[in-house]
Every structure is written in structure tokens, then in C-alpha cells.
Amino acid sequence: MKVAVVEGDGIGPEVIPVARRVLEAIRPDFEFFPVEVGYGKWARTGCACDADDIAALKSADTILFGAITTPPDPDYLSILLRIRHELDLYANVRPVRGEGFDILIIRENTEGLYSGIEWREEDRACTVRVITVKGSRRIARFAAERAQRREGHLTIGNKANVLKSDVLFREICIEEATDAGVKWDAAFIDALTLDVLMHPAQYDVIVTTNLFGDILSDAAGYLVGGLGLLPSANIGDRHALFEPVHGSAPDIAGTDRANPIAAVRSSAMLLDYAGDREGAVRIETAIRDVLARGIRTPDMGGRAGTRTFGDALWQALQAQKQP
Ligand code: NAI
Ligand code: MG
Asked: Would you give the DSSP letter of residue 199?
């Protein structure tokens, strides 16, 4: 398995080495190679991500990705959006698990309000919200299949009461859920977001459009104690990229305060994708063991640094190997 590693900016170069070391401990057979994209590269070379970088990412079996800071360039197109488009990573999978709840947020990742079709006029700016039959069908099918596998329930997050584009999205999700024989309901995204926070145990798989999924998944961080804990997978038919939900957190970058759990859990999702379910479970067990010893980063009320937490995690994994 060839893994491209993009550390990125801000806390990326602090949390990704922890995740990579965990992967190396479990899978010494994996081959890692670095790819540099992001603000740091832009500041040095004037280009945040070039065609060679995209080619390098495409050459990998999977990608482990930190986070990147948005460069201060008015004509700049989000690098992550570009990567998601070029690699056609259409399904953004964001699990949110805690005491008594296990939610899988599945966000359409290539269209909607992040279609990239936008322009500025004298007295207004426009962004086109594109919802296609093809785009909706493949994400609906992906989500229905996940719900089916979990013998669960599919909630379709939408705003069809206001947006015609979501009437289409909802319609196709209902078709796919019905075809898959999955129980479903549809809910308006604003009320749904509050209800997920108030009654998380009532939710299983939630499918929604791009921006709504972005907001819903960050808000769901409230259920688990913050953004430092949430992993994600960006999955397409040929490529897959794993990254924490959080960004580059410039406010704490370089201070050894970042929580590496989101990045480490993203590497567990990578293992799961690679078919190594056992490895993914080992990672979650090691995280639980370290937290049980009271070792926590400041966002979780502790005093451990990123590196100390990483060392403890690595030791917990080594301890698992002993008979
Ligand atoms: P952010 O997620 O970087 O930070 C939000 C807040 O959460 C900050 O107070 C930060 O300190 C805290 N936080 C985030 N991750 C943490 C961790 N692992 N441990 C402890 N605390 C953590 O979002 P923000 O501030 O809106 O964006 C900062 C930069 O990141 C921007 O340039 C933005 O464009 C970029 N960004 C990049 C993403 C990506 O590459 N996937 C995703 C989201 C934002
Ligand atoms: Mg976000």
C-alpha cells in the first residue's frame, strides 16, 4: 500500500507525524512518501498545488492529509476543493461516536454550494449551487449502502422547503434508500442540526449536501468534546484521502498543544479502507488506553503535549503486541 502523506500547514506537521508513526507501528509493510501542498508552499514558490502534486496524489493508493491554511490570494481556489474534484472524492464520511451514540455523517463532496462556479459583479457576488442527478445518486447509493451494512436508518438532511435543488436531492435519496430496502426519513437541515445535538442516540447514518454536511459535522464535534477528536474520509471510486475534520488551527500551531486524536483516527479509517479492520480497532483501543491513563491534550482539559500524547499512544500499541 502506497500512502501519500501531506502534512500541510499549521498543526498539520504536528499531528500527522503522530498518525503516521501509528500506521508504521501497525503496518511496517506500508510505503510512505511526502507530497507538499498548501500555504507554506505558496509562500515559497507562488503555487500552492501544481499538476505534479495532483499526479503524485493520484499515484498513491491512499492519502493521509493534515490541513492547509487558506492563502491570502483573492483568485485562489481552495486546494482541498481542487483535490476533491480532481480525484473525484465524492463521499465525505465523518463518523461521530461517543457514549450511547454512533452517527455516520455522509456529505456530498463535489458539488452543491462548493461547485466552484462563482463570480463577482459590481454590486453582488454569486455562487451557483449545483445539484445533479448523477452526483446525488452516487452519494445516496453510498449512504444507503452504509446504512444497509449497519442494519440502520438513513436520515436525509435537506432544505427542500426552500431550495428546488434540494427537492431533487431528497427525491433521489428517497429512491435509493427505498431500492436498498433501508428505513429512512427526511429532515430539514436547520432543525436536524439542533436535534442531532440534543438526541444523538436517535441518529444512525445522515446523508446531506456539501455545505450542510460541512456545518453539521463541525457542529457534531460538540458531542465528542471538540474538533480535535473527529476524523474523516474522502472516498471516490479510485482514490481515498483521510484527514481530520479540523483545519490548520494557526492559533495554536507550533505550541505542541494540538490534539492528534482526529489525525490518528483518520489513519484508523485509512486502515479500515485498506481492509485492515483489526488494525483500526487496535488504534481505537490504544487511544482509549492512553485517555484512561489521564494523558490528555489541553483541549480535553489535560496538560500533555502533542508529542507526549503521541509517545504514549505508540507505547500503548507496542504493549498490545506482547502476549
Ligand atoms: P480550525 O479547525 O483550524 O480551528 C478551529 C478551532 O479549533 C481553533 O480554535 C483551533 O485551535 C481548534 N482546534 C482545531 N483542531 C484542533 C486540535 N487538533 N487540537 C486542539 N484544538 C484544535 O478552523 P479555522 O480556525 O476556521 O481555520 C484555520 C485555517 O484552516 C483556515 O485557513 C482554514 O481555511 C483552514 N481549514 C482547512 C481545512 C482543511 O485543510 N481540511 C478545514 C478547515 C479549515
Ligand atoms: Mg469544515
From this structure: -
Cβ < 5 A residues, ion ligand 2: 214
Distance 214 CA to ligand 2 centre (A): 5
Report yes or no: 205 and 147 within 8 Å, Cβ to Cβ: yes
CATH of domain 1-89+236-323: 3.40.718.10
Query: Which residue is associated with the grid cell 484527514?
Result: 243
The C-alpha cell 499531528 sits at 15
| Residue extent(s) of CATH 3.40.718.10 domains in the chain | 1-89+236-323, 91-227
Give the CATH number of domain 91-227.
Answer: 3.40.718.10
228 CA to centre of ligand 2 in angstroms: 12
User: Phi-psi category of 241—alpha, beta or left, where left has phi over 0 and alpha has psi -120 to 50?
Assistant: beta
| 19-35 confidence digits (pLDDT tens) | 999 999 999 999 999 99
Express each pLDDT in 116-150 by its tens digit. Answer: 899 999 999 999 999 999 999 999 999 999 999 99
